[in-house]
Each structure stands twice: as C-alpha cells, then as structure tokens.
Batch of 2 targets.
Target 1
Amino acid sequence: MIRLRLSLALSYEVNEPDSNFIFNIHAAHTSRQTVVDESLVVNQLVPLTVETDPTTGNRYLRLSAATGPLQIFYTASVDLTHYMAAPEQIAEVPVARLPAQVLGYIYPSRYCQSDRLYRLAMREFGQRQQGYSRVQTIRDWVAQRITYAKNTSDSNSSAIDTLIETAGVCRDFAHLMIALCRASNIPARFTTGINYGVDPAYGPLDFHAYVEVYLAGGWYLFDPSGTAIPMGLVRFGTGRDAADVAFATIFGEVGSSPPVINIEAIAGADGLLVMPQLVHSALSTDG
Amino acid sequence: MIRLRLSLALSYEVNEPDSNFIFNIHAAHTSRQTVVDESLVVNQLVPLTVETDPTTGNRYLRLSAATGPLQIFYTASVDLTHYMAAPEQIAEVPVARLPAQVLGYIYPSRYCQSDRLYRLAMREFGQRQQGYSRVQTIRDWVAQRITYAKNTSDSNSSAIDTLIETAGVCRDFAHLMIALCRASNIPARFTTGINYGVDPAYGPLDFHAYVEVYLAGGWYLFDPSGTAIPMGLVRFGTGRDAADVAFATIFGEVGSSPPVINIEAIAGADGLLVMPQLVHSALSTDG
Amino acid sequence: MIRLRLSLALSYEVNEPDSNFIFNIHAAHTSRQTVVDESLVVNQLVPLTVETDPTTGNRYLRLSAATGPLQIFYTASVDLTHYMAAPEQIAEVPVARLPAQVLGYIYPSRYCQSDRLYRLAMREFGQRQQGYSRVQTIRDWVAQRITYAKNTSDSNSSAIDTLIETAGVCRDFAHLMIALCRASNIPARFTTGINYGVDPAYGPLDFHAYVEVYLAGGWYLFDPSGTAIPMGLVRFGTGRDAADVAFATIFGEVGSSPPVINIEAIAGADGLLVMPQLVHSALSTDG
Amino acid sequence: MIRLRLSLALSYEVNEPDSNFIFNIHAAHTSRQTVVDESLVVNQLVPLTVETDPTTGNRYLRLSAATGPLQIFYTASVDLTHYMAAPEQIAEVPVARLPAQVLGYIYPSRYCQSDRLYRLAMREFGQRQQGYSRVQTIRDWVAQRITYAKNTSDSNSSAIDTLIETAGVCRDFAHLMIALCRASNIPARFTTGINYGVDPAYGPLDFHAYVEVYLAGGWYLFDPSGTAIPMGLVRFGTGRDAADVAFATIFGEVGSSPPVINIEAIAGADGLLVMPQLVHSALSTDG
C-alpha cells in the first residue's frame, strides 16, 4: 500500500459575473484508490456542489463565481493498493465478451480517431501475440516515435495530428496510444491525475494524462509519455479522451494562472513509508 | 398515443468464422416509448444476448455468427405517448444546473467538433433569445445551408466536413446541428431509429439519424434533415454521435445487403388509429 | 503617381553554420510598380544573390550565413502608377479564355482548398452578377464573417480552418478569399508586401498579405482583412498562397526577432506628394 | 532509345451547352522525350487550341463542347532516350544551390503538406546518406507502408490521409513520397502519363501518376506505387501535385466513361525494337 499526499492550488481572475466552473480535481474513488482525508477551500463564499458520476466515478466540483479572484485549494491523502499481476498472464478480452459498459471505449472519439487507423494498427500490431504484451508494444511504438515537446500541440490536437507531427505532451501521447488500441479492438480510455516522481526536467508539476486499457477484467495503467512512474499515479478522472475530463471547464470570461501542484509519498496507516517505483508488473487501480 | 408497427430484415454473408456482431436494432425503452410486442428471429442457431445500457437505455443484440448467411428479422409494435409543449414555454437549462449525466453532451465528440465552432455559434446564435426557439434557429440554419445528397459524404465525414462541403445525408445534418448546439452550450445528442412518413423520393426506407436536445428537463426531438415527421420517430439508440450508435458493428469479414425496413401506423389498444403528423409543438419521448 | 519610401530591418541569431536563407523582401518589378532606388545592407560579409522569378517577377535574396547575428536592412523608394477603372466595367474572364499562365490560379493549393468549397461558393455567390462586383461580394463576405484576432491561427492554418473558426490575421483572410474565388472559377493569388496607412491599433507595422484577382485582363487588388488602404500596397511577392511567398524561408537553426518596418509617402519626381487614399475604383499594379 | 506507341480514347456526354474542357493528354516535349508523330481527333467540330506551358512543357488541349457526345482520340509515337546514371553518383543539390525555378517544388502544396512532416522525415531519413539512395529509401518507405487498394481514397485525399490510412492508388503513393521528399528539403514533383508494362492484375490501363525528384541537376523518375516500369513511362504533365495536372478539368455538367488506353513498344527509327525493362540505374527524361 502506498499513501500519497497531494495539494493543488488553482487561481483565476473572474471578469464576468456568474462565471460557471466545472472542476475535476478530486481524487477519484475506485476499488483500489481510497481517499483517506481531503479538504477543499474556496476563497469565494459561493454555493458549491461535488457530484460523483455513477458510471466513471469522476467527481465534479461545480460552482458559479463572482467577479474578482477565485482561488481553489485542494489537498488529499490517497491510499493506493495496486492490483499487480504478471504481464504474461493478462489476456485480452474478445469483443464478444466485452461488458456493455466497456464497449464505448472501443469506439472513436473527438481526439482518438481510431476509425482511420485500422489498417495501420493491423499492419503494426495485428500479428503480435494477444494480451498485455501487445498493448505494451503499442505503448512502446508511441513512446519511440513521438518526441516530448511543449508548444508543438494545442487543445485542438488529436491522435492523427500527433501521429503526423510526431511531437506533443502527455495528453497527445495518451490520445495516440488510445486510438491505436481501439483500432486494434482493445478498449482504452483517457485518464487524468497527478503523478508522483516526475523528473523535474519536465518543468513544474502539472496535471498528467495517461492511459487505462481494459484487459482480463480490469483497467491497466500505461504511461506512453514515459514521464511518470505508473505506480505513483493518483487518478482524478477518466473518460473517452481529453474532451471528457478537463480538470477545469469554464463558462465565462476568466483569466487563469498555472496551477501549483505538489505530491509526496507519506507513511501509511501502518506507519510504513512505501515509495512508488518502476515495476515490470501490470498495475491496476480499477477492476 | 400513436402505435407504430415496424419490421426490419438484415442480411449478411459471413466469410470468417466467429464473426462478432453488435446490433442496436431494438426499439428503446424510454419513459414515453413503450414496446408493446416484439419478435426477433435469427437464421443461425447461435447464442445471443440482448443487453440494455443502463445510462442510455440502448438495447444491444450481440452474437457470434458462423460462416454462411446470417439473417436477422426484427418486428415490434411501439406505443409513443409524446410529451408535447408550447415551444415558447421551453427554456434552456443554464450550465450551472445541468445534471451531471447530461454534461457529457456539451463536450465535443468524434464527429461533432463543437470546440472549433464556438466563435461561429456565438456570431450566428449568441444574440438569439434563449430557449427552444434558439435551438429551432440552429436547426433551420443547418437545414437551409446543407443540401440533402447521397454519395457526397462517407463514414468518415464530420460536422466540420458538412459545414464546409454543404451536403450530406441525415447523419451529417444531425452531426452539424449537434456540434452547433454544443458550441452554444446546449446539450445535444445523436439519435437513431426508424421514421414513419418519409417521402418515397428519398429512396427505400433506411435507418434514420436525428437529434435530441436537452431543454427544460427533457430531451426534445429535432430532425434537421427535414426528411422525417418527428412525431413518427421510433428510437433505437442515442449517444454522443454516430460513433456510439451504429445499427451494426461488425468484427470479421462480412458482406452485407441493404436493410429492408417497413413501418406503419396501426390502431392502438383503444382501437383508434392515430397518424403521426407535423406539429408546431415541441415533442419529447424521454424526460 | 504615388511614391512610397519603405525600410525594413530583419534580425536573426544564426546558431548553425551555413544556415540558408531565401528572402522575398525586395519590392517587385511590375508594369505599374517601379523601384526608383533601393539599397540592401547585410551585416555579414557573405556572398549573396538576388534572382528574379521570370513568371511572377518575385525577387529572391539568397545567402548562407555564418554563426552569429545576421542583420538585413533594405530600403526602397517605389513609384506606383495604379491602373484605375470603374468596377462596373470590369468583367470576369470566362474559363475558356483564361491565359495558360493564369490557369494555375484557379486550382486548389496548400492553404486554399477551393476544391472543397464549390457548393458553398455556388450557393453564396453563384447567382451574383459576374464581374468585379461579384469578387467584391466575396471579399465582403469574408470580411464580415472573419474576426481579426492574433494568436487564433498559426502557420498551419488554411482557408478551411479560417472558415470554421472565423478568426485570423491578414494571411488567413487572404487564403479564404482566394479559396472562394477559385471555387467560383475566378483566378486569385496571394500577394505579400508592405502596406501604407495601416491603423496603429493593429500593432507595429508588419508584412502584409492581400489578394490579387484576375479580371478583364489584369490582376486587381483586394484587401479582405480591411486593415490596409489598397492604394498603399507595395508588392513584394505573389504566389499560389503563403507556401510560395514567405518573406523568409530558413534552413538551419536560427532565432529571430520581429521585423522593424517603416513606410511613408514622399514627393515624387514631379515634386508632388500624393497620399494613398481609399477609393471606390478598381486598382491594379499588374496587367 | 525506346519507341512507344500509345492511344487513348475519352468519351463524355455533355449535358450543358458550352461546357469547357482543359485536357492534359498530349505527350510532353522534354529534352529526352520526343514526339515522333501524333494525331488528335475530336468528334465535335469545335475550335480547339493546344498550348504549351513555357515553364513545365505541359501541353493543354482546350475546347468548348456542345451538348451531346464528346469523343477525343489521341495517338502518339514517342521516343525516349533516357539519361541513365549510377545511383551512387547522383548527389542531392544543397538548398543554397537550387535553381530559382526548382524552389517551388520544396514548398508544400494542396495534397503534399510537407510542412507538417518535417519531424517525421528528419527521424526517418535525416541520418541517411544524402543522394539518390536517400530518395530511394523514401520511395521504399512509402512502398512498404502503403497498400495499393482502389476505393480507399478519393480526389480529396492528401499525403497526410495516405500516411494515416495506409492505402491508396498511384496518385496517393506519389503525393506521400513527394511530401516526404520536400520535408527533407529535396524538390519533388507530381508527374502524370501512361506507363508501359503494367501488370494486368491492376485492371484496365489507366493514367498513371509518379514522381520526379530533382537531384544532381536533373529530374529523376521514381514510381512509389511499384505498378510501373519507370523506363516505360511517357510523360504528359508535371506539376506541384494532382491539383495541377488533372488529365481533364471540366467546367459544366458532363458525364464521363472510363478512358480506353493502349501502349506498346514498337521498332524505332533504326528498326530496332527495344523493350522497357526494370533497371537499377537512375533514369531521367528531363534535365
């Protein structure tokens, strides 16, 4: 069991009365991710709600802010009890046996146009042995071809753009890997959160995007950008792609500053401090 | 109350053993659409399941077919008890009050890239009075600019393509209207089914795509292609866009023939025959 | 006759030896644009050539620079003797009579995908009276729908992107107008230069992109962005679209600063100072 | 010296009076392609012109046809005296020494968006030894990744689409190879014509699209689709991409039938019959 303590501070300047915000900045409740304690402080005295999406478990903070500064502080301690398995024992699930609620994740979405990549996926991955290792091959294919580079992509960039321009940030790596999995008839989804252990060379800590792939009855973690230690990922939201799980969706004229984010490993309930580390095992926190 | 009787026959030639099919050809169960009776006949003696998606109510028929002909016959009698309201009494729901399960329908999707249309939507519809009439304006804007024409679009065509090339079929009209609604922060979804009363000039009866828009607590029907009588629509599936609700998703080498579809109005439980007609009221079968 | 005096200073930091530059920063020689005097100063003592493209009259300065600062100063005095005509007397040239060397300008190009806009152009402009006024209608259509806004487009943006996102800078306005002209079978080309009389609200003077349209045997000036006085345009280059006439094409690792540009009207050979002004006449400096 | 005799028959049904046609179906005059004899027969008695573009040598047949059938028969005997060289002796031309009239062929065009492929080209080909062999590597890269398949692309398909969907016809192979050459700063152009020796498995003989690349002072032939024997190519037109050199550009409502094309090797002026054959030498008919 790993316990991570994270904090994040978001800062906005609201220029239009009653600007609406939908945040996805709460640690998700999953079968293997438990929120031990958390706090939320908002500098404006406005009504706010936190709703949980019954399908995904995403938690959404919603509020309408008045003109002026808006500041959100969130802290949480999160316990991760990863399901770990040997990669060679994790099979793909044939389409015929995919649960109904998973089917949506083999269809194309806004930023993951898997429908255009069937031939490419078939040529590159079609002959590979089915199972976790095939997904790992897809993950490595993306990691090798795409260069991590800021300011080469924007919020409009899709998996196809990334494939063509061969550069991007974590979000772009995730979209391309997802599109290639779906084009191989393997369900894959976009996941956001905070990652422990990121190399400071990547700049100040930011929200992270990674991938969960449905195999052998669970959702397994992959980080195609290679910037995170998968064991150190705290999940906030999961969806089809970035269109579903922006950390903040804003309706109104609002200026923003970069988020300030921290995360550290702390001692768990048993007093032991366990650090996330790179492992060869397959990891899941959901399913 | 309107009772419609529909039948459809699908015919395939399966060239690969264990080809998988996911059909969405069952009339949906909604608060105002009731399936009075139905039958399903499949010429192959294979196991089949019909599952209902808890979120959308879509019903999915799944089966694995053997090599050779595969034929599916479905018939149903469906009662529609439309909620009808005066358009001027139907308000938009402010973003702040949109239910969590509706939020996904304001985000962009594979074929409805609303994120790229905010400025256009703002200029064209931003000054319009909020409510049903604004959505009607969007529907009419699409209907006036797009020409109904077969073979001008394909399964890869999106709302943006339709906006540029100004031609398409019902699916393309629906995608563009949905994208413009979402770009105006109005939830909209893609709906498929069979429509009663289509002009024979459009050719043999086919599956139809139309739009449901979330207003005043319910999903209201719009047919931007202008080919259907909204009161005569029987719903099969609803989703983000065509990526979610193909009437048949096929995994394997399979040849297909055009579907054969019939629909007629019949007398209801009270012995009265009520025909769908064009009305100025707002209509909903869900919500 | 108008005489304009312009100067421009370009400043680079060359980080790779033998970096290659192709500049298109010389005032073009056309039938009605005469370079009275000009000077070119380059801070590096490297061989340089100035070539004139026989087809377009574009003049290209080419050089290979050493590591370190590279600075280019260009000044010129240019006489413009516009051909002016009443718009109602300028007819379109039927395709059958277009000169061979003009034909290329009705075909689509990198940023002007006119092949996808035939239906839209036909619906919007097909019923308009042929001639200068139809082109003016196209120009106004673009000017009204597109908002001038920096940082909404980039070097990858095309006419289609501009049509969808309804915002851009002079280059984007030009691409969209060109695409719509070509989709109407009217030859149009992308022209770059410096414009006199730009409103300081648009920021420091920069290179300008505008449109020349082939009508009645000559190329007529249009400024869809509305930021320039057409009579005050000094032409540098002309081509299919921005892909052909970048003011600087650079091969190598080079940093750059914004150009510093000035232009003023001065007294001509006859001692008279004539200022460019907005006129209703059709204007041409070529043909 | 190879002498090829070709014939082609084009057949249209003109439904609109004064429909305009621009054909590029004459064998080009190049330094090494000589038209020994040719004939053109048009079934309608209408004025026609054949113009030669001074820059490319493309020959354009132009005419306005009356309502009714339009039939064009063209035959020619063409002598090809290929320049042949050992591949290892053919160097690339540094950008700094590219002739002005060649520069346009390193810029992106409608169907060859080389500007988006710089990183990909750098990663795949940047470390290769410069010269003919690098271009051969690009050609082979395309040939290996793209599957020849009809009905997978259309007239709107670009190099980017082909790269993504990994299938197409000769035109698509050519666009992708051209885009990758330009992204590597190697001038490349789109060439059309008739190819001798095509495998009947590809169906009835059709117009062919291939690539010419500028190396060591000349334009060298490449056939990325692998369907032709480069020595058997008779050139009709050359341009930036397919937008420039359609074999027929039609203005008006016109129906068309597939072209009927034949080509055979015949004895030359010296009475010798030389057959085109696959060779390892680099081949050029221009420059």
Target 2
Amino acid sequence: MPRQMNLGAFLMATGHHVAAWRHPDVPADPLDFATYKRTAQIAEAACFDALFVADSVAAPSDPLASHSARSVYFEPLTLLSALSAVTERIGLIATATTSYNEPYHVARKFASLDHLSAGRAGWNLVTSDAAAEAGNFGRQTHIPHAERYARAREFQQVVQGLWDSWADDAFVRDKASGLFHHPQAVRTLDHVGEHFRVKGPLNVARSPQGRPVLVQAGSSETGRELAAQSAEVVFTAQPSLARAQAFYADLKGRLARHGRDEQSLKIMPGVFVVVGQSQAQAEDKYEQFQALVDPRVGVGLLGRMLGNFDLSGYPLDSPLPALPPTEDGQRSRQQLLTELAGNEQLTLAQLGRRIAGGRGHYSLVGTPTQIADELQAWFEGGGADGFNVLVPHLPLGLEDFAVQVVPELQRRGLFRRQYQGHTLREHLGLQRPANPYFAERGQP
Amino acid sequence: MPRQMNLGAFLMATGHHVAAWRHPDVPADPLDFATYKRTAQIAEAACFDALFVADSVAAPSDPLASHSARSVYFEPLTLLSALSAVTERIGLIATATTSYNEPYHVARKFASLDHLSAGRAGWNLVTSDAAAEAGNFGRQTHIPHAERYARAREFQQVVQGLWDSWADDAFVRDKASGLFHHPQAVRTLDHVGEHFRVKGPLNVARSPQGRPVLVQAGSSETGRELAAQSAEVVFTAQPSLARAQAFYADLKGRLARHGRDEQSLKIMPGVFVVVGQSQAQAEDKYEQFQALVDPRVGVGLLGRMLGNFDLSGYPLDSPLPALPPTEDGQRSRQQLLTELAGNEQLTLAQLGRRIAGGRGHYSLVGTPTQIADELQAWFEGGGADGFNVLVPHLPLGLEDFAVQVVPELQRRGLFRRQYQGHTLREHLGLQRPANPYFAERGQP
C-alpha cells in the first residue's frame, strides 16, 4: 500500500469561521452535545484519524467577545470522554496546558480516556495561550516563555513516567489464588525536579496504547526542540507549500539527534477548507460567511491571534501597528500574520476579515479535485504527513469535506477506505511504546 | 403523592465487597467501560436518582494492595462524562478533592458535565482520603484536618462563584444583529482569599441546573458545619437506626442557622445490601463472598478504612490495637469501627472480614420484603431521606436490588415508577438556585 495521509477533524463549537454561528444553517449553541456527536460521527464515517479539540483555561475578555461564539465551550476531557461512548474507532485528541495543571491529574485523565476509548486518546501538550489564564490560577502575571517551556518539558517527563507506572502484564486477576496484580509490576516514580515533586504510582493501569499519543503545536525554536524530543504528532500553521516544506525538513531533521526515526513524528499542518461543486460555488459559499463578519469582530479575533492585544483603539482602515513580540505562546502566529499584512498591504479590517475563517492556516476554497490536488502536492512534496482540517461551519462544513473531498483522496489511493487498526497509534502508523521499566517482563 | 425516597447507586469497579472480583460471576477488570455502562443502564432502568463515584488521587500502597481490585480505576469525571452519553435521566455524582485541585478546573469540569448531561451533574466535595495523595502533588506531608476544611470552604465558595459567572439568559445568539451574548451578563469573580486568587469568569455558561448538586460526606463536627452551610446531599455511614436518627436530627437542626430549610438538604446513609429470595439464600450469597476473603486482605482494607494504618505487623487473632486519631479524613469511620471492635470483642481478622462488604456501612442481608422494611423504617423514622446503595458485586448485585427490592419499594409508594423530572435536582426535589448576581435579569 502506498503511504497514507492522516486527517484530523479540528472541532470548534459552531465552526472555525468567526461568523459561522450567524449563518442560518449553523446550530449556534456551543454547548449542545448533540451537534458534537453528529460531527464526530460524520468524521468517523469518513475514517478520519482523530478529532482534535483546542483549549484555553479562561474566557476571552476583549471588548468584542460578546459578538463571537467563543466565550463558552465544553472542557475537552469531559467532551471527548462523552464522545468516546458514541464512537468506535476515531482518535480523540484533547489539549491540556502544562502551565496551570498538575502532571498527576493530566496523566490520569488521559490514561483514563485511553482506557474508556480502548486506545484512542491523544494529548495536545501546550504551554499556554492567553494571559487571562494566569489570573484564574493565583498568578498576577503570565509565566514567561522560557520558564513555561522548561516547566512543560519536566511536566511531560513526569506524565510519561506516570503512564509507565505499571507493567503491561501487571494484572493477572487470578481468582483462584487471590492475586490481582504482581507486586513487582508497579513502581513509584519518586520524581524530584525543578518544578514538580511527584511520587506515583498512577492509579490507572498502563493504557491500551502504552501511552496516549503525544501531540504538540509549538513552532518556535524552543517548541520545535521540545517536539523533536518527544512529540509524535505536530500541528502547525504554514502559509505556503514552500514554508511547509522548510518546517517539515527542519523538524524531521532534528529527530536523529534525539535517537528517533522520521516515522516516529507525523507533521500535520492545519488547512481551512471550503468545498463547492465548482470554483464559483465554493467561493460563493465562502463569501456567505465573509459577508457576516462584523469588521470590529474580525479585528478582535486578530488581536487575540496576535497574542491578546486590544486593537479596538485603532481605526479599521489603518495598517497593522507595530507590536512588541507577544509573551503569550502565539509568537509564531504573530510573525506569520505580521508578514501577511506587510506583503499584501492589508488594513486592520482586511486582515481581520482574511483570518476570519482559517485564522492564518492555509486556505483552500474550491472543488474536491482542486482541494485534493493541493493536499496531494503538500503530502507528496515533503510538506505534510497529513492535515488537521478546519471547516467554516459545523457540522455541515465537515460533511462537505467528508462526502466530497475524502472520496477523491480515496480514489487516488491517498487515504484509507476503512479503518485498518483500532487505536489512534495504529491509525497514525505510530509504534506502541514499550515500558522501559518492565522490559524484561515483555509486552502482552 | 407521599414523600419519596432517593436512591443512589454507589459504583465501584467490581463491587463493594473486597473479594468480589474473585467471584466467578464478576467481571474482574476494573477498567472495562462496558461493565460500567451495563451497571448504569440497570440503575437507570430502576429509576435511581444518581450514580455515585468515589475517588482518590493516589494508588493504595499497603502490602496487600496486590490482592485487591482497588489499585486502578477510571478517573471519575471522564467516566461519568462517557456514561452521560449512554444514559438519559440518571444523575451523575463524581467525587473531587479540594485539597489537591484548583477551583477553576473543578468548577469547569462539573459545569461541562452538567451541560453534556442536560442537568445531571453532582459534585461530591471531599477534603482528602489518603496521605499518599500529598506525595503526588509536591507535598511531603498531608495537609492537617483544620487547614483542609478551611481550604475546602474557600474552594467551594470560589467554585460556586464561578458557576454564577454568567446570567442564565446571557446568550441571545441573535444571528441578525451579530450579538452573541449580552456584554453585561457576565462578571469576573475577582476572588482574593486565604488560599486562592481567582479572577474568572468561567468559560462555561451557567449550567442547566444553575449549579451542579453539591454533595458532601464529612461527618466530623467541621464536616457537619460545612455541610449545613452548603451541601445539598450528605452521604454518611451510620451503624444503626438510632445513630442515623441522631445524625439526621443534628444535621437538619443546623440548617436554620444558615438560613436554610430542611428540604434543601437530603441525607442519604450508605447501605450495603445482599438480596435473596429467602433469608437463607441471601445469607448463602453473602457467605460466598465472605469465604473468598483472604484474612490478610481484610485486615489490609481495615487499615485503610481506619485512616491508612499498616496493620500487617499484628497477629490476625489479636484485638484492634489502640491507634492515634487519624489525620486522613477518615476520623468518623475510625471511631465507628473502633466502637464496633470493642462492642463485639472482634479480632483483627474478624473485624476485617466484617467490613469486607459494607466497610462499616449498615448491612442488610435478606429478602426484598425484609430489606424494604428496614429502608422504610429508616426513611419514615427520621433516619434518612434516601440511601446510597452499595452492593457486593457489580453489575449483578445491583440488578438483584433493581429487580427485587425496587419494585417492593414502588408497591409501597415509597419510590418512583418512572422519572418525573429531567435533572438531578428535579429527581432529588432540590430547587434550582437563582443567580444572585443577575437576579434582576430574571431566570429563563
């Protein structure tokens, strides 16, 4: 079989377009589980590798928040746990920050989800996303970038150690003798580090995947190094094939130094997709959403994407003002958008409108054939192992992709027609990690 | 309609009897979601008010842990979220400790579960349960009892404040004007206290129940005062009707001082139930489990119940040694068991065997009529508003109760034949709390 593309369905309540909720076809309640369930089932019927859920541990506070559907949403682990019970095969990737969590809780929740879903859990490790988060966890100011990453690295090591608390074959459950688990098949972690002291063991057995799949999205130098060291999937925003190729080559090139081969890390750029039967129909569909963008709301979103700057004081037709580098974990996105504004001489309102759908991700508005051509070019041209698919509105935008684009990818032999494996690791072609602490016991 | 009894189904992987997993009829995998799903559906078919899940944030470390099925289990919020998707009406009560959590996370997860389940979430607030937990969260020693409760009180206030971040009618979702929520219908909490600084608002809308139901289990003086101040359901272990009556009268008597009426707090003692068609058959069923108790395992469980003491050094036929008062949040249970041992002159092995099923909860081993008689006597005699039902093995022990005892209670007019309401509050007869910060806006 030729190399297969991986596809993630990036969930966001009403869809990724900031004005999606205003469209007559879109259920506008971000806390309606039925809509998520329908979306998940559409993605699973199309054999997507995974559902992906972003997160923030604060409500947006910009003045235009009242005009977007982004203020309230489900907590990702509870949402994906619920979806695990109404799906069978699709992976479930939730975001959780290392900046305002405890590693024991995070290790436990993802291991629990991996058991609930029979091996479909993934953890998108992020450092943090909004200065507002600090205030909800007893801090006056945000943790600086470098310290955030140092904490993230240690956090990840503790989580991984906790996931390896138990041998895979620890639980004999011998009813006759009364021995439930081998006493030697569990270990305390006894971690003592710069940021954490964690004794262990975890109170969850080693999970079906050994460890839930580790996903990262940081694109800064520090973020890339952390990803090269430990990530198994990287999501990223890349504005062109050339940039995607450079990122792909750079990140894959770092793996050998960490003793890893290129297959152990999958790179999946985000791609914003609007599908139509003709180019004109696709553009018309896209314009329906664009026409609903209140320019002030577009600029509000822009401010958030740049790293939580309030741009409401600037005239809508002014150019993007010079901004200091953000400390908010959005530095790569800030750079990308600043370049875009400069290259195309966009006003604030124009830039806000431009990112209203894909938020800086590569955008494809066209026919199934055109979209498949582009995805294939990236996939075969060293730009991507797969894609995290953003659609303007949910669930219908995903249905468009599932019903029109996926079959075209399947005809070309680029994407599965049915699931071959049962776990997220199997979908992604990632090995199940052995437990280094119990190697001599063997794996089940 | 006469006053109705409330019933909780206390879930525990293989059942409450410490040797349940050894029984041939019992699925012995504590991480099998299918068993939980079946159990939940049995409870819902019998119209139980709620499922209840206990918790600890540490694996047991006593030497006999290898001989019990209690070392690994699902994290409660992920488990109940998954169960929310495969049930329709039954309440979902999860335990979460205030000692090693952040209020923002706890508020958020329970609000999210309340939305996922359309109003069925409950939070069992505990202070903590095992010294081993401290070591997983950067502490060398456990937080002392008094400080734990002070923290718990402030924690609960912060969570409640966060649950009230949004007016019930905040979200207008006006597609025409583009207004998603009223800008004035959200408030920051700006809490600054002894233990926490939390800005808010919560990034989850006010939930279907207004606030998830608040459950507590502490029976100490401090625990009772906290319950009288804020709890809506209290679980408790009471060894006799007389003691249950005293507890009930004491706790209900405290409510007026906090401006609350007696209906605003439901008291639900735990009751361990083994059902048979005849007394002899019930006793025989119970003995099948008792015969599977390894005495060392019984004593290991006893040590945990007394507050995490290692009793493995004492001879099995010695009396219970004098122990210092535990600091482990089990002080009431310790007192209860110490009295039991003294009154009946039990050896360690005998006491361990005695608690192997109900762990100090009131035990009923008999016919449906006998069991219904006792429950009715407690319910009508001022000892209980309902019961948290513990069964030796799951799912079959609960099925016994559902199929044999519930119909007897229904015949007597003591328990619903079908759900009247949709939310946990409605099942329990608890009012939906108004949002004090947005009273002038009215409720939906």
